[in-house]
Design a protein that fits this description.
The structure holds two protein chains of two kinds. Chain A is α+β, with helices and mostly antiparallel strands. Chain A has helices at about 20-25, 75-90, 105-115, 150-160, 220, 225-230; strands at about 5, 10-15, 50-55, 55-60, 70, 130, 140, 165, 175, 205. A five-stranded mixed sheet of chain A has the order 2-1-5-3-4, covered by helices on one side. Chain A has a three-stranded antiparallel sheet with strand order 6-7-10, with no helix packed on it. Chain B is of the alpha/beta class. Chain B folds into five domains: about 5-65, no CATH class; about 75-170, Glutaredoxin (3-Layer(aba) Sandwich), CATH 3.40.30.10; about 175-390, NADH-ubiquinone oxidoreductase 51kDa subunit (Rossmann fold), CATH 3.40.50; about 400-475, Roll (Ubiquitin-like (UB roll)), CATH 3.10.20; about 480-565, Up-down Bundle (de novo design (two linked rop proteins)). Chain B has 26 helices and 15 strands. A six-stranded mixed sheet of chain B has the order 6-12-11-15-13-14. In chain B, strands 2-3-1-4-5 form a five-stranded mixed sheet, covered by helices on one side. In chain B, strand 2 (about 105-110) and strand 3 (about 115-120) form a beta hairpin. The radius of gyration of chain B is 25 Å and the shape is globular. In chain B, about 55% of the residues are buried. The chains are: A alpha+beta, B alpha/beta.
Chain lengths: ~240, ~600
């Protein structure tokens, strides 16, 4: 028997075991998210998908759907929280959209547009982070990493390579590369890896090409993220 | 005795802990203790022997504050720097050590003799200032002791040869009630289990109204019942005692474990739980700051094995097999959160898990797991013997029994106070000799800031719940310094997993600094509130949800702290514009008045 919950008043069917996010995605309903990708085990760390379920704030990507649950997502106060979370991600790293090759194909930027974020508001932290250009085909730009761990999960679970990890803690948490040198060039990371295709921002960028598709005609320049979905599903549109 | 090579040190740990990567954290702690850091060669040895990627090892070293990839000094000194220690001179102590030993806080002396730094509360607030040397606590480091420590470091005396009285820690038990007064024989709870059976004892626990003492107050019979009913391979459930008492200002679990009788009861409570839920393995997760309790507790475990109270067919109950291992923490407050604790037990970074599933159904290695704290297991062992009415005789309807509080700060008699639930804050303040009190911080840095007009409120789950921290501030204190100290603590202790806590704690830190400097405008206070409320609503775990409480409470209840420091300007930038021009001045070789902005900015 198919069960249902309500999302902003719409009836959403689900199978037992599905999360609120799973069921919403299947029904074509968009709940903003960055660290979620249905291919991988949900993580619930970016907190953008926090919704109110029967009055309680929960992450849609990790919370099981339940019969009769009343879920609110697209409300002014929840969208305001999402803007604050996005602003935190922007000031935490060094995100210079006008100079970024990922602009227009960047899910962070796209979700920020969708949620109506106009400016970062908070004090920029301007962390000093490095670039890793050691790999022949990819640049790692730690300035743009938002710690979604999609590359960590993809490399571990889909590619069985475990190229990435996380070290440090708190505001010092950071992406690391599984090599004694810490350099991507000293791993078996490969353009065909799933991990090479899941970064929602511009932290893992292919080399040898740039601006093939002009800004203005890119994925999220044409349609909002709520209609287009995750950047990981549109790799062909970026080449 | 010369230090072992990195390979030897790693090899010793592999022998001790086996080739199971679940014990990786314990092995790294062992290497850190043996060598003062975790060198490259040890990492490679673990990679090869355990089949784990180096990123996992690096991830652990980066997560736990007591693990280091680069060498620390032979004497690794950390001065406890919670607000209570600050009030008792922790900063002056560190500066004095720095001056006498020629090593500024945060650094390692060039000859490698010592490293000096700060660490959050080490459970010594009643005998501050205190410090850790290579993980071993030395309390009450006043003038003479300071000289003694300096001399021992300069003489390069091995820590094992330092005078034992330096490491003696007072119990300071000031008020006893049910738990601390009970005279119950060792093994009595297990005898009750044998006599009555698990079903009957479950009813006793239920009737006793016993709730977990870790702060959340979950009904003990319910928790154990859930675990008992959770499907598991025959008796493969797990019992964990949370002795990661990291909440600033609390130290009662340390006192309980220091007392051999109470430590025995704690283990008996765990064993009782195992017998009732059907568990075969137990862990005591002991915070690294309580390193000095490890050997006495190991001895107590061995004594219990020898007495037939642990091991096979415990207490003569056929098929009741259970044993307890002690795992050390390594400087991570978040590991007091039960699911982060389980991650840490599995040798991982202490990121809290998603719940559901709760540990009672899927905990350690996916097995149904009960996690309770030291005081709770002691209470459970006593209730099993003394009965439900004995426990119900104290406390309130919803909070049966007693609570042990760690009282510190501005009072004549800091220490341990056991009260029936329902006691008012005023009663506690009167009993410990507090005068002219400005505020009580209850339940630690993650707790509530209570002003005098609320001192008639009660310690009880239905009013002010607490794991036991009770910090007192008199009228001479600047509460903004308290708020900033707590916020700094959360910046240090946030695991970094979720956005609101990872970034919010740091943004608050910057804004609070601005308030403190007198540069904040009203909109900065709005920002503090906005960040705090966002963290409350959207954080992944309780750390992020409670971290902003002291800010929000003081904004509401002590508004003058902020208002009196506001700048009269509508907006002051978050950075110093004039300082930002210093590079340009250096490049142009100018430093005349006209190369500076007037005042301090726009």
């Amino acid at each position: 028997m198919i069960e249902h919950f309500s999302l902003d008043g719409k009836r959403i069917p689900f199978q037992p075991g599905q999360t609120i996010m799973d069921a919403a995605m299947q029904a074509g309903e968009y709940i903003p998210h960055l660290c979620h990708n249905p291919e991988f085990r949900p993580r619930g760390s970016c907190r953008l998908c926090v919704v109110r379920a029967n009055g309680r704030s929960v992450a849609a990507c990790t919370s099981p759907a339940r019969e009769g649950l009343e879920v609110e997502s697209d409300t002014p106060d929840i969208q305001a929280d999402r803007r604050s979370l996005l602003q935190m991600l922007f000031v935490e790293g060094n995100h210079l959209c006008p100079a970024c090759e990922k602009s227009g194909n960047c899910q962070l930027q796209a979700v920020a547009y969708y949620c109506g974020m106009l400016a970062p508001d908070f004090t920029h932290l301007y962390p000093v982070r490095e670039l890793d250009g050691s790999h022949p085909d990819f640049v790692l730009d730690f300035n743009r990493c938002i710690l979604c761990e999609l590359c960590v999960r993809a490399s571990r679970d889909a590619d069985a390579k475990g190229v990435f990890g996380i070290s440090g803690r708190g505001i010092g948490a950071h992406l690391i590369v599984n090599a004694p040198s810490g350099k991507l060039g000293d791993t078996d990371f490969d353009p065909h890896d799933r991990a090479a295709q899941v970064c929602p921002v511009g932290a893992i960028l292919p080399k040898h090409k740039g601006y093939d598709v002009p800004i203005g005609r890119r994925i999220y320049d044409r349609k909002p993220v709520s209609l287009v979905g995750d950047v990981a599903d549109h790799q062909e549109d970026m080449s | 005795m010369s230090a072992p090579s990195p390979e030897q040190a790693a090899g010793t740990q592999l022998e001790r802990w086996g080739s199971d990567s679940d014990n990786l954290l314990q092995m790294l702690i062992g290497v850190q203790a043996a060598l003062g850091h975790i060198p490259e060669a040890a990492i490679r040895r673990f990679e090869a022997a355990l089949g784990v990627g180096r990123a996992r090892i690096e991830g652990l070293i980066g997560f736990y504050a007591f693990l280091h990839h680069r060498p620390r000094g032979r004497f690794d000194i950390r001065v406890a720097d919670n607000i209570i220690e600050r009030m008792r001179g922790s900063r002056e102590l560190a500066e004095a050590l720095a001056g006498r030993l020629g090593c500024p806080p945060g650094e390692t002396r060039v000859d490698g003799r010592l490293s000096l730094g700060y660490t959050p509360c080490i459970g010594m607030s009643d005998q501050a200032p205190a410090l850790l040397v290579n993980g071993y606590a030395i309390p009450a480091v006043e003038h003479a002791r300071l000289e003694q420590v300096v001399a021992l470091v300069e003489a390069n005396t091995p820590l094992a040869d330092w005078p034992p009285e330096l490491f003696e820690v007072a119990l300071n038990i000031q008020r006893k009630d049910l738990l601390l007064e009970a005279a119950v024989e060792d093994g009595a709870a297990l005898a009750a289990l044998k006599a009555s059976g698990a079903d009957a004892l479950m009813q006793v626990l239920e009737a006793s109204g016993l709730r977990g003492r870790g702060g959340a107050g979950f009904g003990l019979a319910r928790k154990w019942g859930f675990c008992r009913q959770a499907p598991a391979e025959a008796k493969r459930r797990v019992v964990v005692c949370n002795a990661d008492e990291g909440e600033p200002g609390t130290f009662k679990d340390r006192v309980l474990m220091q007392d051999p009788q109470q430590a025995a009861r704690m283990f008996e409570g765990m064993t009782l739980c195992a017998g009732m839920v059907g568990a075969d393995s137990g862990f005591l997760y002991l915070r690294g700051e309580y390193r000095n309790l490890l050997e006495p507790l190991e001895r107590e475990l061995q004594r219990r094995r020898d007495a037939g109270l642990l091991g096979k067919n415990i207490a003569g109950i056929a098929g009741f097999d259970f044993d307890i291992a002690i795992h050390l923490g390594a400087g991570a407050y978040i590991c007091g959160e039960e699911s982060a604790l389980i991650e840490s037990l599995e040798g991982k970074r202490g990121n809290p898990r998603d719940r559901p599933p709760f540990p009672v159904t899927r905990g350690y290695l996916g097995r149904p797991t009960v996690v309770n704290n030291v005081e709770t297991f002691i209470a459970a062992a006593l209730v099993a013997v003394q009965g439900a009415d004995w426990h119900r005789a104290r406390g309130t309807e919803h909070s049966a029994g007693t609570k042990i509080l760690s009282v510190s700060g501005d009072c004549a008699r800091p220490g341990i106070y056991e009260y029936p639930f329902g006691v008012t804050l005023q009663q506690i303040l009167d009993d410990c000799g507090a005068a002219d009190t400005q505020a009580v911080q209850i339940a630690g840095a993650a707790g509530r800031t209570i002003p005098p007009d609320e001192f008639q409120r009660r310690v009880a789950f239905e009013d002010l719940g607490t794991a036991g921290s009770f910090m007192i501030f008199d009228q001479s204190r600047d509460l903004l310094e308290m708020v900033r100290n707590f916020n700094d603590f959360f910046v240090h202790e946030s695991c970094g997993f979720c956005t609101p806590c990872r970034v919010g704690t740091t943004l608050m830190q910057k804004t609070l600094a601005k308030v403190s400097r007198g540069h904040a405008a009203p909109m900065d206070l709005d920002t503090l509130r906005r960040i705090g409320e966002l963290m409350r609503r959207t954080s992944h775990c309780g750390l992020g949800a409670t971290a902003p409480l002291s800010v929000l409470d003081t904004l509401d209840k002590f508004p003058a702290l902020y208002r009196d420091r506001l700048s009269d300007r509508g907006f002051v930038p978050g950075f110093d514009l004039d300082a930002a021009l210093s590079e340009a001045r250096a490049a142009s070789g100018r430093d005349d008045p006209r190369a500076h902005l007037e005042g301090d900015g726009v």
